[in-house]
From TrEMBL:
This enzyme's EC code(s): 4.1.1.20
Binding sites annotated in the UniProt record for substrate: R287, R324, Y328, E356, Y384
Classification lineage: Bacteria, Bacillati, Mycoplasmatota, Mollicutes, Acholeplasmatales
Subunit structure: Homodimer.
Positions that bind pyridoxal 5'-phosphate: G242, E284, P285, G286, R287, Y384
GO BP term, example: lysine biosynthetic process via diaminopimelate
Stretches assigned to the Orn/DAP/Arg decarboxylase 2 N-terminal domain: 34-291
PROSITE patterns (UniProt xref): ODR_DC_2_2
Domain Orn/DAP/Arg decarboxylase 2 C-terminal: 32-382
Organism annotation: Peloplasma aerotolerans
Record key words, sorted: Amino-acid biosynthesis, Decarboxylase, Lyase, Lysine biosynthesis, Pyridoxal phosphate
Domain of life: Bacteria
Protein name, entry field: Diaminopimelate decarboxylase
Described function: Specifically catalyzes the decarboxylation of meso-diaminopimelate (meso-DAP) to L-lysine.
N6-(pyridoxal phosphate)lysine: residues carrying this PTM: K61
Length: 429
């Protein structure tokens, strides 16, 4: 019997799904804290080299809360934020501001002001307009570390919405555009800026090692070109995130603990060939740290068979807490947490309760016969689920619970109906 199965029931982090549901109700996001920590530790241990300085930054867009900031800090990772809201959350959690990297293609004036006030470690500038806005905000005698978001034009095989470096991407400036070089020279002329290097990110949920290697080689070649054409030495290179996670048996992520040292080796060799100083290398994983640690628990309501024989199982959540199937046609696996070892030989479509035909959680999953009040556990929901949830249909966002060593800890409370109207004003107010 697996350690996740006792008496035909699913256990997560040593806690039974049944107990979690009884205590916190459904829908419920459950995160296995040890799994998140061990992924953080894996990056700390394997993204290292004797010859290259490295840093792992957690991409907080995948999942962020005060407790997650504390966890990331305690594991010694830095933090990538892309909005004032993420930045504020990190600040409120007491996350060290010098370990923050502030991204985004259209940071507002208020967001830039906040970043300067908090003295974040590095601002990743997306384009010239943003650069000029930033310059005007920096107080006298303050210096800001900046990186420039560049687009190396690598095509990684992933969904169009999450592929970021094709040539028409909204992110960053193309390395094939001469004006990018002019901007680099311009950045170097400002006393209030310390130009650190380049940031780029080729997409998300990528399974080909070669895409990352090609990416690093392309940026290094650009670093060499920049040096030859301008004399500017680029000290740092942030390669972004994008490592794939396993959602279903079809997904075959590569072993990061073997790949990360190989990537660094390639970076060392390529730098040598190009005769450039090997830059400090950063990576920014989000999904690969949290996705597989997460489960969403739902209570089964009705079931229904259509005239053509399609079998629906309805749950008490929806696309409001599980957006990725509707948005990306993403595939998921699930089990009935209280019938773990029962034979699963019939295919079901798991549908939510939102008022929209596209509100499908899983198109096709084999389950034992579902009955009302069963607990459905959808796997691999730790990344881009809570962070992409909404209040569509005025549904309340689920609670989030960390589980570890047989204990659970509530880290985000379930929203209430009062929360839903918190910002509403009546006509007569
Ligand atoms: N760094 C930057 C600059 C990024 O834009 C992203 C993701 C990451 C790091 C982290 O990538 P990861 O390691 O998580 O793949 N909502 C989509 C994913 C969008 C990713 C956007 N950027 C999804 O649910 O699949």
């Amino acid at each position: 019997m697996s350690k996740n199965t006792i008496n035909n029931h699913l256990y997560i982090g040593g806690v039974s799904a049944f107990d979690l549901v009884r205590t916190y109700h459904t829908p419920l996001y459950v995160m296995d804290e040890s799994k998140i920590r061990s992924q953080c530790q894996m990056f700390k241990k394997h993204f290292v080299s004797d010859h290259i300085e490295t840093e792992t930054i957690y991409a907080s867009k995948a999942f962020l809360s005060l407790a997650m900031c504390e966890l990331v800090d305690s594991e010694g990772l830095s933090l990538d934020v892309v909005s004032g809201g993420e930045l504020y959350t990190a600040h409120q959690a007491g996350f060290p501001m010098h370990k923050i990297y502030f991204h985004g293609n259209n940071k507002s004036l208020e967001e830039l002001k906040l970043a300067i006030e908090y003295q974040v470690g590095t601002i990743v500038v997306d384009h010239r307009h943003e650069l000029l806005t930033l310059i005007n905000l920096i107080p006298k005698n303050q210096k800001i570390n900046v990186m420039l978001r560049v687009n190396p034009g690598i095509e990684a095989h992933t969904h169009e919405y999450i592929r970021t470096t094709h040539h028409d991407s909204k992110f960053g400036l193309s390395i094939y555009d001469e004006s990018t070089l002019d901007l680099i020279k311009e950045i170097n002329q400002y006393d209030s800026l310390i130009f650190k290097g380049f940031h780029s990110h080729i997409g998300s949920q990528i399974f080909e090692e070669q895409s990352f290697i090609e990416h690093a080689q392309t940026v290094l070649t650009y670093i060499s070109d920049v040096y030859l054409k301008t004399g500017i030495v680029v000290e740092e290179m942030n390669l972004g995130g994008g490592f794939g996670a396993k959602y279903t048996a079809e997904d075959k992520p590569f072993e990061l603990k073997f790949f990360l040292p190989t990537l660094l080796e390639h970076i060392g060799e390529t730098s040598k060939k190009l005769r450039i100083k090997v830059p400090k290398v950063f990576i920014e994983p989000g999904r690969s740290i949290v996705a597989e640690a997460g489960y969403t628990l739902y209570t089964v309501g009705g079931t229904k068979k259509t005239t053509s024989g399609k079998q629906y199982v309805f749950i008490d959540g929806s696309m409001a807490d599980h957006m990725r199937t509707a948005l990306y046609q993403a595939k998921y696996d699930a089990v009935i947490a209280n019938k773990l070892n029962d034979e699963a030989n019939t295919s079901y479509t798991v549908a939510g309760k939102a008022c929209e035909s596209g509100d499908i959680i899983i198109k096709d999953v084999k389950l034992p016969k579902p009955e009302a009040n069963d607990i459905l556990a959808v796997k691999t929901t730790g990344a881009y689920h809570y962070s992409m949830s909404s209040n569509y249909n005025r549904l309340t966002r689920p609670a989030v619970v960390f589980v570890k060593d047989g204990k659970s800890k509530l880290i985000v409370q379930r929203e209430t109906y009062q929360d839903l109207i918190r910002n509403d004003l009546k006509l007569e107010d």
